[in-house]
Prior knowledge:
- The chain is of the alpha+beta class.
- Helices cover 26% and strands 40% of the residues.
- The strands form 2 sheets. The protein has a 3-stranded antiparallel β-sheet, with no helix packed on it. The protein has a 3-stranded antiparallel β-sheet with strand order 4-3-6, with no helix packed on it.
- The longest helix has 34 residues, at 17-50.
- The chain is elongated, with a radius of gyration of 29 Å.
Amino acid sequence: MSTASMRLPEGRYGRSSDERADHRLRVAAVVLGAAVLALVGYLAYHYVVQNKISAQVVAFQASDDAVKVHLEVHKDSGASGYCTLRSQGADGNDVGRADFRFTGSATRIDKVVTLRTTAKGMTAELLGCHAD
């Protein structure tokens, strides 16, 4: 004895409601994914283009009340701005933080700056650079 199939014949009555819902979800996912990708691209472009000053810590030397930091700064000619440095003690607390300004027409600056600290600093960390 055979049992009757509960499925409709293929292609005879159009898409089922489940297939229509799946299609709508796929379209929504593609649109949302494209929007997120566009936002990430815009933010990355904005960050790279607008950041006219960048720097890196080459070396540092700590003493009881200061940290001497060798900075290598790259900037656009004529751009001015500042870089923020901080130092932390052995317990992880901030012991010093300061902004150092960079101006002039040079595009590459190697400079040793002194960051005053309230205790012996164990680190010298560049928090970021910002153009005026």
